[in-house]
Amino acid sequence: TANTSRKSGMGPNSSSGAGGGGHAVIVRDPETQLDVTPVSLLEVQPSVVQGDDAGRHSPKSRESSNNMMDSQSSAGFKSGWSSGSQTPSRGDSDMSDRDEEEEEERRKKEEERKKRMVAVTLVQDEAPKPTDVHKEVQVLLSETDTVFLLDIPSTCAADDDPDVERVKSANKVYTDAVELRIKEGADKFADHNIQTLNSANKTKEAQATPAQTHDVGVDVTNYQIHDAILELRKGEDAAGAGDDILGANTKKKTTTTDALNDLSQLSGGRVDTAKLGEATLASTEFRHALKSMERIVVQNIYHEQQMLYRNMASPVIPAEQALVGAQRGRMDVLWTYECDLSKGRNVSCMAWNKLNPDLLAVGYGEFDFNKQSDGLVLFWSLKNPEYPERVYRTECSVTSLAFAQKSFNLLAVGLYDGTVAVYDVRKEEDKPVLESSYSGGKHSDSVWEVRWVDKGAERAEALVSVSSDGRVTQWSMSKGLECTDLIKLKRVSTHKRAVNTKNEAFISRMASGMCADFNPKDTSIYLCGTEEGSIHRCSVSYNEQYLDSYLGHSGPVYKVVWSPFQPTSFLSCSADWSIRLWWQESETAALTMQSSADYVSDIQWSPNVSTIFASVTGDGHVCIWDMSISTLDPIVHEKILPRKPTCIRFSPNSDVVVAGDDSGRVTVYRVSGIDNKSYTHEEQVARLDRALAAKDADAAEAQ
Description:
With 703 residues, the protein is of the alpha+beta class.
């Protein structure tokens, strides 16, 4: 529906449409009053629409147009535009194709449409009346027939196309014609190659770091190969014998579930629960699961203590103890390494693993001949303070042990009967991989010290042992344990004799070695403490004489250790209750310290500060000394009576010391209130020199 108005340019003039029931709408330009009525895109007969020179339709043209529409309507032709514009008639040929019933129905619809149209007669040149402005004018648009402006037929046919069979047959005819020409070799047909441009291939390379490889050489003798073959055969026999119990080949790694299924199949559904329980308890998977669960439970119990061990938390100290601790330092017990295996045994020696500083090897054995029994080596870990990770048993007391510096899995153990054994800690069995024998130069008395010596990058580590039989022996592991004596200790005179004395003759006897330590800077120089109280500085190049002898102790020297920061100074402790600091250039002690009236069984330098060391005494005292603060009394003093401490070690990665005693306990202490700053090597040396200089100044003032 369209409304006529002045602003829109719709003129009030119109004429009746086809049949007199409709009207034509004339669209005029508001400014020029020209006729701008849209016309059909189809070609219109000139007789239908006629206009004057100004472009306006004359009454004659409208009348003729109306007559034409009436004649077409009466003849039954369908109009393309219902408002006056006509489409060309299709012709009698098209009408003959339609059925008469369809023509009658169409004629009825056309008459109904004309009745619904509102006839509005407007005068062309007459101005519209006010009442005509707002009248509604109906415009009826109907769809015309489809007109194809461009039609390009497709070269492909779909599978559901009606002409698909015709297309296939045409293609087959063409294919057959081509093949026929190829066979007959017609001149009009030629086969030519066409060159196409292919994209150039692109080579892409990736650079990766090659995997690191190491060359490892091992010397193997014929008897070692023979023994290895026998061991393999024994393992195969044991595996074959175990098939009857487990119901499966034990060469294959089995689980408890596999064993249960196999037993059920062999016994027809009846399983021997006793055998199954034994197999479960003996399985490696079950023991590993128990160990993991035990560690989880123990972690919940010792969580706070282990946080203190790692310096991840601060201990809660009462106010009265905090005041004393701030002045001199303090030691707090974190936990104790102890189990049923170690109760009542004497802790004789301890050693930290170089690769895993949380792994502590502890040797148990008696020093007294009348109390001798079997020995024990327990491996304690921070992961489980309640029970050791591994247990090695020995036939006699363990007197010394040490981990290798390069081959971290090797542990050297010295026994009371003079045996030197080397264990591979990767193996669970307590059988040593190497062991000394009398035919191979075994010591005839107790081995009190074992040390690993680095011989350089081109040579393997060597093992050195010190025994009461007076021998300092180096062991080579290239072909079993082969020994070479570095020196045989001899007694020296501890007092000056008169030059003109003729009646007394000096008798040279063997001296008992008690301890030894190699210089950290020059491994060809080592110290050896003896039972008579003297300390000898020796060289691996001379096996007949000492480089220097240091006389000062009046009792057996239990320990001698080089300073890790000053390679010309060392500490020693003795049964004469004293601790002495020596310079290698002087035969007399530079400093003598004493904290109790009992023997000093062990000493150990701090790995972090050059002036701090620890000591344990026979009257039950664990002491921490700092020579930069005091050389008269220790800065930390802990009494553990009635137990007697036997050895002490600093932790290599924490502010912790561990002390073993004669009851089988290894107590872990956290030390606080001491200097734990990080110093350079030059500052460490200067710190130790200043401490000794201050001591000399105090001695001069006292005189």
